[in-house]
Design brief:
The complex is a heterodimer. The two termini of chain A are 31 Å apart. Chain A has helices at residues 22-27, 68-75, 109-122, 142-148, 168-177, 189-200, 235-238, 249-256, 260-274, and strands spanning 4-9, 14-20, 33-37, 45-53, 58-64, 84-89, 100-106, 126-133, 151-156, 163-164, 182-186, 206-209, 225-228, 231-234, 241-243. Chain A has nine helices and 15 strands. The longest helix of chain A has 15 residues, at 260-274. In chain A, a hairpin with a 4-residue loop joins β1 and β2. Chain B is α/β, with parallel strands linked by helices. Chain B has three domains: 10-122, Fumarate Reductase Iron-sulfur Protein, Chain B, domain 2 (Orthogonal Bundle), CATH 1.10.1060; 139-233 and 389-456, FAD/NAD(P)-binding domain (3-Layer(bba) Sandwich); 237-386, FAD/NAD(P)-binding domain, CATH 3.50.50. Helix content of chain B is 32%, strand content 19%. In chain B, strands 5-4-3-6-17 form a five-stranded parallel sheet, with helices on both faces. A five-stranded parallel sheet of chain B has the order 8-15-9-10-11. The longest helix of chain B has 21 residues, at 436-456. The termini of chain B are far apart. In chain B, 53% of the residues are buried. Classes of the chains: A alpha/beta, B alpha/beta.
């Protein structure tokens, strides 16, 4: 079960893997996510599925090697198996005709946005995509998104590629100069907050795809709770997409850091072991 | 006349056991079991059986113990109860079989649960001869591998059905695995009972969320009938300010991190847990006791905050006693009003004092706020253990399934039939948080009804 059938590196620390998971391949829809465990003693972490092949029973995941779990995952080779792959979890993104859409993606959000972009394009939306990265070497999938989108902007913080600056720079220009019906931001929480803060002033409907700490992914533990419009929601069953203007991002960012010390320790021990 | 008091069961000393996760209650030796079995009067009209949700022939199995026929005693229990090593440990016998024991009128009832556990543990080494009917070619899907799902699976497999058991998590057992700590129900006991279910030919498929990975309606195409035992996996929070501060867990999250993910063995296991010196557990049920006792084992100074008085604590008496022995403090008649913190981490709980008013629907005196009486507690960690609602996933993704006010699946109480033809349900998904044995009882009744449905084709 859950055999890795293909693997390639998209950038220094972003990896794409194709995994055998026939039931998930058959049922997953854009916006939903999976939970994996690399090995028996591993953590359960949520991950993004970029594409799925129903006939072959395969799913393609993209992840960034940041902590112990994703680094262990990155070390897995073709032919090896994962201990657990479960999903799809969460609700599909509401695919319909909105009109003029801006997709804003950063980090592995770039991968997550691909299936949503495709589906939104298929129903006739005009799609402008803004992809942001710290530097040129971290960019990936710009060709994929370029082929789906009607228009593509790329920003890098250091100006090594595309527009120098943050994703909010071209977004502001678009908001000032065009009519936008909907914005979807997927990526680091700080980016999604910045996008939501910006679009609020323009009163443009803005969705964000949240990525809190999770365990079971079925609404059982409540670890992924966020405050949306003053009410507690569970991202795993109520989300992962929410109205960005109503999300309490400060709380989310705080909660994402709950285990920062333990995460550092686990990573240090892993590096010592590998050294 | 039998002795008025039961044979005590050996336990780990409180000062030792708070340093480990090993089982607290050590079980009867053969001599102790024989001594206790001797207390049973073998009443001509036994009341104890009525008190058992699965109707075990209790006097019969105790008589077999008296004759030292332990294997036969084991088989006698297994006629009605597929998981005796588990129920012998976690059943609230004091409210069931032992409550109706005739000896309870004049002294202590026969320690039925301890005897059940003795028999189940004694027979562990024996590879049981598995008796089952020849395959009948009919397929059954069971959703959730907790006590209800395991019971349905075992019962129908024995009748010759081909049973597929789906589980959302990576391990079997449901609440037995993620909810109940090792010191009350060791994982190898769950494994042993699960292995028995597997040995009956049940196919186990983990990591499948029915309602997401496969829809219920899709299962109905491939299986003659479906049983939903997806449990009460949706934690209730207090809905007071500050509840999402760091350091505040639902009991489900806290216990899952330990029981399912083994966070107490971090960094050997990758899942972490942060727990401070002062832990406050809110609630008074078994889950609250479990959370408190786990916290104690992780070195914390633990207080349980309950809105009613000691008398109304819903936890088993045995668990309350053990919590007290382990040095857990209780604050009664109070409930949190708000949490506040520092740097995002909870450090203070503002509490409202309560007093008891008139009895409510549950028959217990209802707590009402005492005007103007509040106080604060300093804490590092808070665990909210005030109950669970039925898991919402199947209800949300299935058409034509009648759902109640709290998200519970509505069923016929005798058969477990839902509003959807071919679909049965039982356990906490129907009742909300209840006991392991009640879920097993519901599973047993549904299994019989499913058998009847598939035999007669009449809904």
């Amino acid at each position: 079960m859950y055999k890795i059938v293909d693997k390639k590196r998209l950038s220094d620390n972003v990896v794409q893997m194709v995994i055998e998971a026939p039931l998930i391949a058959k049922s997953i829809k854009p916006g939903q996510f999976i939970i994996i465990m690399v090995y028996e003693k591993g953590e359960r972490i949520p991950l993004t599925v970029v594409t799925s092949d129903k006939e072959k029973g395969l799913i393609t995941i993209v992840f960034q090697e940041v902590g112990k779990t994703t680094k262990l995952l990155g070390k897995k080779e073709i032919g090896e198996e994962l201990y657990a792959v479960m999903g799809p979890n969460g609700n599909p993104f509401p695919i319909k005709y909105y009109g003029n859409i801006v997709l804003v993606a950063g980090g592995v959000g770039v991968a997550e946005v691909v299936p949503i972009a495709k589906a939104l394009k298929e129903v006739g939306n005009y799609i402008t995509t803004i992809v942001g990265a710290r530097t040129k070497d971290l960019l990936f999938f710009t060709d994929v998104l370029g082929s789906i989108s009607n228009k593509l902007y790329i920003t890098t913080d250091d100006g090594t590629y595309g527009i120098k600056g943050l994703v909010t720079l071209p977004l502001k220009e678009l908001l000032d100069n065009t009519h936008i019906d909907m914005v979807l931001a997927v990526g680091p929480t700080i980016m999604m907050r910045a996008v939501s803060d910006l679009t609020r002033g323009y009163n443009v409907k803005t969705y964000v795809s949240l990525n809190p700490i999770m365990i079971d992914g079925t609404g059982m533990c409540g670890g992924c709770r966020v405050t949306v419009d003053g009410k507690t929601k569970f991202v795993c069953v109520d989300g992962p997409e929410f109205d960005g203007h109503l999300v309490n991002f400060d709380e989310l960012m705080m909660r994402q850091k709950t285990y920062i010390e333990q995460e550092r320790l686990a990573l240090k021990l892993l590096e010592e072991k590998n050294a | 006349m039998p002795r008025r008091t039961r044979v005590p069961m050996r336990e780990q000393n409180p000062e030792d056991r708070i340093k480990n996760f090993d089982e607290v209650a050590l079980g009867y030796s053969e001599d102790e079991a024989l001594l206790e079995a001797d207390r049973c009067l073998n009443c001509p009209k036994p009341r104890c059986i009525e008190g058992c949700p699965v109707g075990i022939d209790i006097p019969a199995f105790i008589s077999l113990i008296k004759e030292r026929k332990y294997r036969e005693a084991y088989r006698k229990i297994k006629e009605r109860d597929s998981l005796p090593a588990i129920t012998g440990r976690v059943c609230p016998q004091e409210n069931q079989c032992e409550k109706t024991c005739v000896l309870a009128r004049t002294g202590e009832p026969v320690a039925i649960g301890r005897l059940e556990r003795f028999v189940a543990d004694y027979c562990v080494e024996d590879i049981q001869e598995i008796k089952k009917d020849p395959p009948n070619g009919k397929r059954i899907a069971v959703v959730g591998s907790g006590p209800a799902g395991l019971t349905v699976s075992a019962d129908l497999a024995k009748l010759g059905y081909s049973v597929t058991l789906f589980e959302a998590l990576h391990l079997p057992g449901g609440v037995l695995t993620y909810g109940i700590p090792d010191f009350r129900l060791p994982k190898d006991i769950i494994k042993r009972e699960f292995d028995y279910v597997r040995a009956l030919g049940v196919e186990f498929i983990p990591n499948v969320v029915v309602g997401k990975t496969i829809l219920l309606d899709e299962l109905l195409k491939d299986y003659g009938a479906v049983f939903i035992g997806s449990g009460a996996g949706a934690p209730v929070f207090l809905n007071v300010p500050g509840e999402n501060l760091l350091g505040i867990y639902s009991a489900n999250e806290f216990l899952s991190r330990i029981n399912l993910m083994r966070a107490h063995r971090f960094p050997e296991y990758d899942t972490p847990l942060r727990i401070g010196k002062k832990v406050l557990v809110v609630g008074g049920g078994n889950v609250a006791m479990d959370s408190a006792r786990v916290s104690r084992r992780l070195g914390a100074d633990v207080t349980i905050l309950y809105r009613r008085s000691r008398e109304e604590l819903p936890a088993r008496l045995e668990e309350i006693k053990r919590a007290e022995e382990e040095g857990i403090n209780f604050v009664f008649l109070a409930t949190p009003l708000a949490f506040s913190g520092n740097n995002g981490w909870v450090d203070t709980v503002e509490c409202q004092e309560m007093e008891l008013g008139e009895p409510d629907e549950s028959g217990r005196r209802s707590p009402i706020p005492k005007k103007g009486s509040t106080f604060t507690l300093k804490v590092d960690t808070v665990i909210i253990a005030i109950g669970n609602r039925p898991n919402p996933i199947i209800a949300k993704t299935t058409q034509g399934l009648e759902i109640g006010r709290h998200g519970e699946i509505i069923v016929d109480p005798i058969t477990g039939k839902t509003s959807k033809v071919g679909v049965f349900a039982g356990g906490d998904i129907v009742s909300g948080s209840a006991t392991v044995i009640e879920a097993m009882g519901a599973g047993r009744r549904s299994a019989m009804a499913m058998h009847k449905y598939l035999t007669t084709k009449v809904w």
